[in-house]
Write the structure tokens for this entry.
Amino acid sequence: MGQKTNPVGLRVAVNKDWRSKWYSGKKEFGRLLAEDRAIRELLKKKLESASVPKILIERAATRCRITILTARPGVVIGRKGAEIDKLKEELSRMTGKEIYVDIQEIKHPETDAQLVAENIALQLERRIGFRRAMKKAIQTALYFGAAGIKIRCAGRLGGAELARVETYREGRVPLHTLRAHIDYGFAEANTLYGKLGIKCWVCKGETKDETPPRPAETVTVG
């Protein structure tokens, strides 16, 4: 059966980690979940030009630690840390909690699936040909050491009357192999003729099985 699942959710606790780390009772859970979503939406909107693929949230009592993964840490921090102080204030007002913000730099944004998808979406909004944008992204990812990449664009591609799906793939992207490090990203391009959806899967190799081999059993013949 062709039942699709999110490659990140499927690998959580195998080789992926949770993006929100906290625990709460039944009464508080819904409110905190909605708060997490609001925090992510606000930061995504504010840091649109900073290439932010992932926002990690940790909570403890009245404190909340937010880790922003970004390809451009300078844009997030701002001059003398002005931008980050503004963000802290705004988030504190919104949540009513003590906020700590950490910034983590992404060394190779070319192989980050979310950033690749967002970059293609940006190009499609600027009316660059979808085939050209997809092929360029694939070449760049492979050049920077990705084991394989698959990109899928759907919608009224090139302003066509009928919506369709185009997929390009290079290298190996084994979605059923749980030990494979598959990075997944999704973005939407708002064009004049409607929305286009871009999905991206990047394979960054596999985790080697590190269990030591069992010693050979010695059999004594008496």
Summary: The chain has six helices and eight strands. The chain has a mean pLDDT of 86. The beta strands are 20-21, 54-60, 63-70, 98-105, 148-155, 164-171, 180-191, 194-206.
